[in-house]
Amino acid sequence: MADPKKLYIKTYGCQMNVYDSERMAEAMGGSGYEEVGSPDEADMILLNTCHIREKAAEKVYSELGRFKGLKAENPDLKIGVAGCVAQAEGEEIMRRQPLVDLVVGPQAYHRLPEMEAKTREGEKVLDTDMPEEDKFEHLKSRPKAKRGPTAFLTVQEGCDKFCAFCVVPYTRGAEVSRPVDRILTEARDLVERGVREITLLGQNVNAYHGAGSDGDYTLARLIWALNDIEGLERIRFTTSHPNDMSDDLISAHGECEKLMPYLHLPVQSGSDKILKRMNRSHDRDSYLRLVERIRTARPDILFSGDFIVGFPEESDQDFEDTMDLIRQVNYGQAFSFKYSSRPGTPAAERALVPADVADARLQELQALITQQQRARQDAMVGQEVGVLFEKPGRRDGQMVGKSDHLHAVYVDDCPSQIGDLRRVRIIESGPNSLAGVLI
Ligand code: SAH
Ligand code: SF4
Ligand code: F3S
């Protein structure tokens, strides 16, 4: 048999890109490729890109420029661009960077092997179609390769919400839910290969509505079905939209044993004026009430959020409203971004907040979040938590894992193996992690 060809994939952006990169590596395995950790000796380089903010998109072009030397050394090297920049700027990529042989959008990954074959014949190929067929059906994983203890599983893709700042509805297309049976089959397969924790993915994962052999499934019903899989210990899901937090999903947080007490629930802003202009379709009060209801169902739940500061026409008062909302919710984790104008989105036409004002607001917001995050972490000291061990730590004999609340936990002199789920008592809280001892 010929030596395997080498594939190097670099992944940017969200967890769905991580999942997609795994599927692309598996699909290319069928064409004789094995994945490698460096671009140096690769026969093919794929950048799986993100278009969410301007910086993310620009990174791709500078990264591509760096491959010039490699291509000069190895004229057989093929360079491909996948992901959301590919979808949004496909033809421009080909124009701006002649090194690129292949551009593939997120809905066309199952065609990657044929596309690669064409590049071997010297063609340049671009496929950013959004076909009706189910790409996941064509992206079946190679059977039985051993895996680490945690995995992502895409159950829903695309978005129909059209927030005024966001490119995702254009790059990922309309909301589509995968059928229940395929998800359950994939989940069982992951568990057989060593996975203990599955994070269900979707741009609007809680809008999931999939067809099952016994009727329609909401995300909550899907979670309950996954809860029955023996050997699967933990279930998470991300990202949720506040308007799709249905009653059954809220009560699942109180009742479903394997569903972890962590919820990423982006709000973006605490000002009703800005939320309206963002086309978020929820307001400040409805979000705060929702948080209360979820906390009633699961008092120890940890909320995580996303915030955009400096959205066009955000006044000092609007920003204060956001800070006030953060104080009320008390987040355990959050991601915050300075607004980035994206071509083709409705907000791109509007006047920007001065950059220094936006920068100052971002700093102030991040300081508050850090404080809340740290307080929540410090409050874990003395508590018992479940920890799923994922890898050895830097120190000899040390293991690192994630708690139920997704805190990184270090245990010294730890006899546990990767994939073990153990009870741990937290003894110390550091800047970004906890330390504990096995019980
Ligand atoms: N619902 C999606 C959100 C994807 S984008 C999901 O599945 O995660 C992730 C976050 O990026 C958003 O919640 C928002 O806070 C931020 N974001 C999106 N567009 C942005 C823009 N134009 N400028 C700055 N931040 C943005
Ligand atoms: Fe973007 Fe809004 Fe859809 Fe999230 S809900 S992906 S922020 S359009
Ligand atoms: Fe980025 Fe696309 Fe994900 S724009 S955040 S990679 S859906």
Task: Give a short overview.
By secondary structure, the chain is α/β, with parallel strands linked by helices. The protein has helices spanning 15-29, 54-65, 68-73, 83-96, 112-120, 168-171, 180-192, 219-227, 247-255, 272-277, 284-297, 316-329, 355-378; strands at 5-11, 33-35, 44-49, 78-82, 102-104, 125-127, 150-154, 156-157, 176-177, 197-201, 209-212, 215-218, 234-238, 262-264, 302-309, 333-338, 384-392, 399-403, 408-411, 421-429, 434-438. Helix content is 34%, strand content 23%.
Structure commentary:
The protein is an alpha/beta fold and 439 residues long. The chain has 3 domains: 123 residues, Methylthiotransferase, N-terminal domain (Rossmann fold); 233 residues, pyruvate-formate lyase- activating enzyme, CATH 3.80.30; 55 residues, Nucleic acid-binding proteins (OB fold (Dihydrolipoamide Acetyltransferase, E2P), Beta Barrel). Helix content is 34%, strand content 23%. The chain is built from 13 helices and 21 strands. The strands form 6 sheets. A 6-stranded parallel sheet has the order 2-1-3-4-5-6, sandwiched between helices. A 5-stranded mixed barrel has the order 17-18-19-21-20. Strands 7-10-13 form a 3-stranded parallel sheet, with helices on both faces. Helix 8 runs parallel beside helix 9, helix 9 runs parallel beside helix 11 and helix 12 runs parallel beside helix 13. The chain is globular, with a radius of gyration of 22 Å. The termini are far apart. The model has no long low-confidence stretch (mean pLDDT 95). The structure holds S-adenosyl-L-homocysteine (SAH), iron/sulfur cluster and FE3-S4 cluster. Iron/sulfur cluster binds next to helix 6. FE3-S4 cluster (F3S) binds next to helix 1, helix 4 and helix 6.
